[in-house]
Amino acid sequence: MEASQVAFLSAIGNHFLVGISRAMILFVVSAGLSFILGVLRVPNLAHGSLYMIGAFVAHGLTTFFGGGSIGFWFALLLSPLVVALISLVAERALFCHLYEREHLMLLLFTFALMLILGDLVKIFWGADYRSVTAPKLLQGSVTVFSSPIPKYNLFLLGMGPVIAVALYLFSNKTRIGKIARAAAADREMVSAIGINVSWVFAFAFILGCSLAGLGGALVSPTVSVTLGMDHDIIIETFLIVTIGGLGNMWGAMVGSLIFGLTQSFGVLFLPQFAIVFPYIAVVIVLIWKPRGMLKAVW
């Protein structure tokens, strides 16, 4: 095989792994949004803001603990908990009164909440760019397909499937998960047998939002942590859950892979138009499968 062919195949393999690692970040955030959509039927536009808060909290905690490896692991553990606390306050004070409202009203409400959270982030953290350093264990690169791949990307490759399996087991094998699925299908029936559906919905909302915070913490070593990072992610995640099937977790995985891989290979073949390729893929999927690749909950 000629050297040029080897180089081309190496580039293909490299972009494939990079695309999947990007897809895993998208999946973590999209899975949270998909879970909320599936159980609560709430199109939460503020989900991206919670992702941004997770990234800023990760930076703050990493800095507080000295910026080393210990700080990063603490940040990865605590950032979703901080976002979960914020979402608990928002759910108990606001969302729990709105579940029966029309989807248009919920969209407008969550859009307003997104703007409020964006302003609060600006007040607390300012508009400066920040960065988070990956722990020493995940710094550097390894050679895969004859090309160097950052160790942190390989870490992300492992995190996505772990979270997917954990969500599946929670939804299908635990009592609270089964109750949440039942409440999504028939809230009145679940309430009639003495279960407090309000707190079931609260738990589902908090779990979905904490995944947004985890996604923000995971992505923080790979991007600049700054205002506005919520806008791109919420557009991408809504498109992902739409093409995957609204409320379907495995659909979120499929949609994330489509989005991440088309973006990565777009950079390889037509870098000046790379941003367009995922949206072309979305259009093709929706023409072929208007209700998404897998069965939608709605």
Describe this structure in words.
The longest helix is centred in the N-terminal third of the chain and has 38 residues, at 3-40. By secondary structure, the chain is mainly α. The protein has 11 helices and 2 strands; from the N terminus they run H-H-H-H-E-E-H-H-H-H-H-H-H. It has a two-stranded antiparallel ribbon. Strand 1 and strand 2 (147-150) form a beta hairpin. The protein has a single domain, classed as ABC transporter involved in vitamin B12 uptake, BtuC (Orthogonal Bundle), CATH 1.10.3470.
In short:
By secondary structure, this protein is mainly alpha-helical. It contains 11 helices and 2 strands; from the N terminus they run H-H-H-H-E-E-H-H-H-H-H-H-H. Helix 9 (229-244) packs across helix 10.
Q: What's the arrangement of strands in the largest beta sheet?
A: 1-2
Helix content range of the residues, please? over 70%
CATH topology: ABC transporter involved in vitamin B12 uptake, BtuC
How does the overall form come out from the CA principal axes? globular
Oligomer: single chain
Report on the biggest sheet. 2 strands, antiparallel
Number of domains: 1
| Overall strand count | 2
CATH architecture: Orthogonal Bundle
The portion of residues forming beta strands comes to under 5%
> Low-confidence parts lasting 5 or more residues at pLDDT below 50?
none
CATH class: Mainly Alpha
Tally of contiguous helical segments: 11
SSE-based structural type:
mainly alpha
**Secondary-structure element string:** HHHHEEHHHHHHH
Mean pLDDT: 88
Question: Taking Cα atoms only, what radius of gyration do you get, to the nearest Å?
Answer: 20 Å
Distance between the termini: 51 Å
